Each structure stands twice: as C-alpha cells, then as structure tokens.
Automatic annotation (TrEMBL):
This is Thymidylate kinase. Transmembrane segments: none annotated. The gene is tmk. Pfam families: Thymidylate_kin. It comes from the Bacteria. The keyword ATP-binding applies. PROSITE patterns: THYMIDYLATE_KINASE. InterPro entries: P-loop_NTPase, Thymidylate_kin-like_dom, Thymidylate_kin_CS, Thymidylate_kinase. NCBIfam families: DTMP_kinase. Phosphorylation of dTMP to form dTDP in both de novo and salvage pathways of dTTP synthesis. Its EC number is 2.7.4.9. It catalyses: dTMP + ATP = dTDP + ADP.
Length: 214
C-alpha cells in the first residue's frame, strides 16, 4: 500500500536492518547509483536531525535520561520516535517527494515495530502510534545475522547505543521477522536482501528490487 504518491512524485525508499547491517552505507551507495541514473535523491535517516529527533538521539546515546536521572520509560521513547517520524515527514520527506525526488531513508516505522515492541511488549500499540505515518513505496530489509551485525558495528565505532548488546540484538532479529510479516500483511511492499555480501553486491541487489517498482 502506498498513500500519497501521485504522477511525477518521487519514490519513498526505506532501508532497514539490525544495527550494523549496513543501512547507512547502503543508503549512500544507493543514492549514488540512482543519481547516476538521472534521479534526484534525498538521503535522510531516523531519528531525524529535527528537534524531536535530536532528543531521541540523545536518549539512544545515553546522554539524555528521564525524570530523576532514570532511563527514559520505553513507552515514552516509543512516543518520541513516533513524534519525530511525523515531524520528519512534514519537514523533509513529503516536500522532497512532491518535487519529484526519490527519498532514501535509513530506518523508519519498521524499526519502531521491531525495537519498541520489545521494550514496550506491545507491537499493536506501537503500530497504532505510527498509523498516520505515510508508508514507504518499498522497504528494503538487509538481512544479516546478529553476530555479523554487531561485529561490523563494533569495528566501525567505539561508541555504543543503548540497544547495541548481543542478547538484545538477537531479540531484535526475531522482532523484525514479526514486524516484516505484519507490514506485508497490511499490503506494504517489502524486499528482503542478503546483506552479508560485498557492498557492491548488496547495492546491486537493492537496485534490482527497486527496478521491480511499478
């Protein structure tokens, strides 16, 4: 299901996967490949760089905590992500699509369904929070094992976010499978791509999946 895409509008493409699956690398590579085909491309990410997204990034890094210095309540964090998503849509994504640009977004609603369904224990509630978010034209899920994902993440940076621990990432991998089934059942288009290959091979597979859009 794709709402709000009219004649001449750009394509809304979302990259998803475990932390370390390569979504950020592939977002840039995919944008370069699409630009080489003559497309205008806007690359963005969630949490966004907007005012709400900045707060979410501080929570993820552990630099912003809840009242009394405790960790922010998981439900409050889910609300923060949902609020950032709506602001991100209005401020950046929808205007770019309307002028005919493709938008490549590093993470979107599927991340909330996976991560926040674990922390809140309620995927249906998280889905309801995000019901007003425009669905992507295509979600591209980079499938890698939790071991591979964490090894890549640890090699890339010494900084750790609150969800980047092995036991939690194994839970996230299972939650993603459930979230993928949920969005596919709702009519959204999803392509699962092997993310364990070379960067070049993964980009080629992503382009092939996008070529199937009509």
């Amino acid at each position: 299901m794709s709402r709000g895409r009219g004649k001449g509008a750009g394509r809304f493409l979302v990259l998803e996967g475990l932390d370390g699956s390569g979504t950020t690398t592939q977002a840039e590579r995919l944008a370069q490949a699409l630009r080489a085909r003559g497309r205008e491309v806007r690359v963005t990410a969630e949490p966004s760089r907007g005012p709400v997204g900045q707060q979410a990034r501080l929570v993820l890094s552990g630099r912003l905590r809840g009242g009394g210095g405790e960790e922010l309540d998981p439900s409050a964090l889910a609300l923060l992500f949902a609020a950032d998503r709506l602001d991100h849509l209005q401020a950046e994504i929808l205007p770019a699509l309307a002028r005919g640009a493709d938008v490549v977004c590093d993470r979107y609603t599927l991340s909330s369904l996976a991560y926040q369904s674990i922390t809140t224990g309620d995927m249906a509630w998280v889905a309801a929070l995000n019901a007003r978010a425009r669905p992507p034209d295509l979600t591209l899920f980079l499938e890698v094992s939790p071991r591979t994902a964490l090894a890549r993440r640890y090699a890339a940076s010494a900084e750790r976010e609150i969800f980047e621990v092995p036991a939690f990432q194994r839970k996230v991998a299972r939650a993603y499978r459930l979230a993928l089934a949920r969005v596919e059942a709702s009519g959204e288009r999803v392509a699962v791509v092997d993310g364990e290959g070379t960067p070049e091979a993964v980009t080629a597979a992503l382009l092939e999946s996008i070529d199937g859009l009509r």
